Amino acid sequence: QVQLVETGGGLVQPGGSLRLSCAASGSVDGIAVMSWHRQVPGKPRDMVAVISDGGNTGYGAAVKGRFTISRDKVKNTVDLEMNNLNVEDTGVYYCKAVYGGIWTYWGQGTQVTVSS
Question: Which residues of the chain form beta strands (DSSP E)?
Answer without folding.
Answer: 2-7, 10-12, 18-26, 31-39, 46-51, 57-59, 67-72, 77-82, 91-99, 103-106, 110-114
